[in-house]
Amino acid sequence: MNSSSYNYNVSSGLSYRDSLSTAVAKNVIVLALGLTINYINGTLIHTFRKHQVFYVNPRYILFIHLVLNDMIQLTTTISLFVFSYVFYKINTSFCCLIITFAVFTTLNTPLNLAVMAVECYIAICLPLRHAEFCTIKRTYTLIAWIWALSAVSTLPDVFIVVATKPVQLFYSTIFCERDNLFSHPISLKKRDVSYIIYLIIVWLTLFFTYFKIFFAAKEAKEAKEAKSRDGDAKKARNTILLHGFQLLLCMLTYVAHEVIKGLLYWFPKHYAHVVFVSYIMIQMFPRFVSPMVYGLRDKTFRQHLKKYLLCTVRPSIKP
Fold first, then answer.
1. Under a CB-based contact definition with an 8 Å cutoff, are residues 291 and 40 in contact?
2. How far apart are the two ends of the chain, measured CA to CA in Å?
3. 27: nearest Cα among 81, 102, 95
4. Confidence at 14, pLDDT banded by 50, 70, 90
5. Partners of 234 in the beta sheet?
């Protein structure tokens, strides 16, 4: 769940520097993919902002927060990727700022997925209480708590650096990796423990909500209740499965080093290429999944999104 650019950036192995043409090609690919994903996400945010049906619905508010979070996470990791080629080392204070945002947004993702799963559970299993439990105010309060929990996990690392490192460090330059900056043993141990706790809570939440919705759909079918409820339950169940798939992709960051070691066993002469492909698959691909969950699967969102995504909305037409 930690950001790839500060864990296994392509340029971190100086003995495996790319040629100029290869470096340019890789940066063009990363920037092109990043701009494409952020364009889609930006269109989702624009669509959300233009139509009241979205920003009065807790489900869409949580989704758009996930999309915005992904945009920030992707922008920070791509920035570190490009900086590692262009500058190699950057100012430590600036590095600390970027990495803090990268860690914040990386930790926000599983928590946001868990909250979205709970909202699906309430909508299907407790439909009469949904309006009571899932209010707009409570939704924004939960989003604030998500950021607060990420802050509780991340800011102590910054305080430890400030307390244990000389002031001159923040005026010097550093290769911007998380482990280079937050290298204190307490920070490393705290990171591992907090990630394990986060993942256990999130996975238990996903399993609980999935099976509750599964049994709700089964009961509706056996009781021959309205097809709409059965269909909604199946859709919600599939959505939670997608949340789980997305979470699995994010969890690949935990084993990024092991994945790279395994690939290097088979391709020992292609270190830079192996890490580059790992970065694309482990960090960029999961960010591409978010728009699919609601942006393209949701009928209401898809109906409005097509117009903005293809720029077919005329200025005279009111949203």
1. yes
2. 37
3. 81
4. very low
5. none
Contacting residues for 27 by C-beta, under 8 A, at least 6 apart: 81, 82, 85
CA-wise closest residue to 243 among 292, 295, 278: 292
Q: Is the separation of the CB atoms in 81 and 30 below 8 Å?
A: yes
Report the half-sphere exposure of 187 (CA within 13 A, side-chain side).
19
Task: Find the DSSP H helices in 165-291.
Answer: 178-181, 185-222, 227-251, 256-266, 271-279, 285-290
Which among 173, 4, 26 is positioned nearest to 80, based on CA atoms?
Answer: 4
Most confidently modeled range among 127-131, 176-180, 279-283: 127-131
pLDDT per residue as tens digits for the range 203-214: 888 888 888 887
User: Predicted confidence band at 227 (pLDDT cuts at 50, 70, 90)?
Assistant: low
CA distance 47 to 140: 19
Span 150-169, average pLDDT: 88
- Give buried/exposed letters for 149-160 (b at 16+ CB in 10 A, else e): ebeebbebbbeb
User: Residue type for 151, please?
Assistant: A
166 three-class SS: coil
Q: Tokens for 176, please give them.
A: 């911007």
Q: What angle do CA 27, 295, 253 make, to 5 degrees?
A: 45
Q: Give the C-alpha separation, 93 to 283, whole Å.
A: 24
* Phi, psi for 175 (deg, rounded to 5): -75, 120
Identify the residue whose tokens are 């290429």. Answer: 273
| pTM to 2 decimal places | 0.82
Q: Is 174 helix (H, G, I), strand (E, B) or coil?
A: strand
Per the model's pLDDT, the better-predicted residue between 153 and 303 turns out to be 153
Closest CA to 240 of 105, 39, 59: 59
Q: pLDDT grade, residue 3 (50/70/90)?
A: very low
Predicted confidence (pLDDT) per residue in 179-189, tens digit: 788 888 888 88
Q: Where are the beta strands (DSSP E) in the chain?
A: 89-91, 173-175
